[in-house]
Amino acid sequence: MRWIPPGRFLMGSPPLEAGHCDGEGRQHWVTITRGYWLGETSVTQALWRAVMSENPSRFVSDDRPVEQVSWDDCQDFLGRLNRQLDGLETRLPTEAEWERACRAGTSTATWVGDLTLRGSNDAPELDDIAWYGGNSGVDFDLHNGHASSDWHKKQYPHIKAGTHPVGRKAPNPYGLNDMLGNVFEWCQDGVVREYTSEPVVDPMSRAQGPRRVVRGGSWSSRAREVRAAYRGAFARVLRDDHLGFRLAGGQVSAPSRPADEPRIGDPGRGGGRDTPRRKDTPRRSPSRSESAKKRGA
Q1: CATH of domain 1-297
Q2: 162-192 pLDDT, tens digit each
Q3: Which is nearest to 205 in space by CA: 92, 284, 103?
Q4: Edge-to-edge, what's the strand order for the sheet holding 2-4?
Q5: Which residues pair with 235 in a beta bridge?
């Protein structure tokens, strides 16, 4: 795990950032008062199996991130891990902790700069740091990849895609790998409405609705979703092959802002919609056929 120091950062994205979504608006200063630990990579299938004695993943390989795990599954895993190792107190990161760690002192869309969106699945700045819809089929070596030949405007041509072993892309300045791409990562927070412009300290939403925040984008994400500020939310019980998580440890944040349902992106293959829904009504997870159609949008 890597140590993330306390500090202050500007959360969210400016309106003119390439790929900006409405739910990222009202940039605001966030202060994290205490440092915390964060996993160098997403939790691998090897670690999940060591704790849970099973592997739910579609793309099976010990060194790939575990996927097809719900937010509730992650809580079960964390409870078992903490009981097995005396004195260990792991948890999911808060949304603010995740973004601070991803940015690693930078203020652009990624830690290597802003994105040049040449197509829905084509942003050359991502190639060295993330597996996303534009490159996740390159050197993909499993037989059960997701059909990707019809994904439009890809950075590289490929016909099947999926996750890749962790740590193959360049880390950020904090030494964290795969903070962007490979799998979306669950955060501890319930979802909140659009940001307030007021500064906040150690924020964490304790909203009790059916959805939880995800961050970072995945192997099947369009380029606009693979940014430090991109926010998404899924039903906490959803299991899908682009959903994983990362361990955090240390500070447990207290709530410091009103909690409510969001108007933030519903990520996935071709996601990024900002359609308002009735409060506490989860979105239906798209079928694979629907997901493939969205790729062509």
Answers
A1: 3.90.1580.10
A2: 999 999 999 999 999 999 999 999 999 988 7
A3: 92
A4: 2-4, 36-38, 248-250, 90-91
A5: 211
